[in-house]
Each structure stands twice: as structure tokens, then as C-alpha cells.
Design goal:
The chain is mostly helical and about 100 residues long. The protein has four helices and two strands, in the order αβαβαα. It has a single domain, classed as HIV Type 1 Reverse Transcriptase, subunit A, domain 1 (HIV Type 1 Reverse Transcriptase, Chain A, domain 1). The chain has a two-stranded antiparallel sheet. The protein is extended and about 45 Å long. This is Reverse transcriptase.
Length: about 100
């Protein structure tokens, strides 16, 4: 359940649209999602919120000859409160790993 800055429950005001993956991309996407689920990086959800997923093929992806799956969270980010975390100082980070 997502809440706004005042603590009220947010009801989705949008639904992600299919960005038209070709069948080979759709299959690759399904396989990649299964790997992420098995690895514990993501979990299944019954949330009414949804964001579009699609592949990008920028220069770095062309070099490694593999497209990168991305999720566009911009519509969702409009509705949630930003959590501000200061960037720790370099010395503090180094002290933590010693």
C-alpha cells in the first residue's frame, strides 16, 4: 500500500500501457523476470500499480550484444514522497568496511 505525504492511501490514477515488445523480446523478458524472481532480486506483487517495462539498446548494450530491460517508474514517482538520504562522506564509508 502506497501512501502520500499526508499518509493517505494512494489509489492508482494510471495503468501502464504495453510498449509493444516483439515476441522474441517478450520471451527474453519473461526469462529475465524468472531469473530475478529466483535470485530474490524481485518479488511477485498483486499491487494495482503498474509501470511499463521495455528494452533499451544503447551503445553499451550494443557492445555486450544484449539489450537491457528497464522499467519506467516516472509515473509512479509523481505520487510517492521522496525519501532524502544524505550521501555519506568517503571517510565514513571507508571506516565501515574496515
Amino acid at each position: 500500500i502506497l501512501k502520500d505525504k499526508e499518509g493517505k492511501e494512494l489509489i492508482p490514477k494510471f495503468r501502464a500501457h504495453d510498449r509493444g515488445m516483439i515476441p522474441s523480446e517478450r520471451k527474453e523478458c519473461h526469462e529475465e523476470i524468472q531469473k530475478l524472481l529466483k535470485g530474490g532480486f524481485i518479488q511477485e506483487s498483486n499491487s494495482p500499480w503498474s509501470c511499463a517495462a521495455f528494452y533499451v539498446n544503447k551503445r553499451s548494450e550494443q557492445i555486450r550484444q544484449k539489450k537491457r530491460l528497464v522499467v519506467d517508474y516516472k509515473p509512479l514517482n509523481k505520487y510517492i514522497a521522496a525519501v532524502q538520504h544524505p550521501i555519506p562522506a568517503r571517510d565514513d564509508l571507508l571506516a565501515r568496511i574496515k
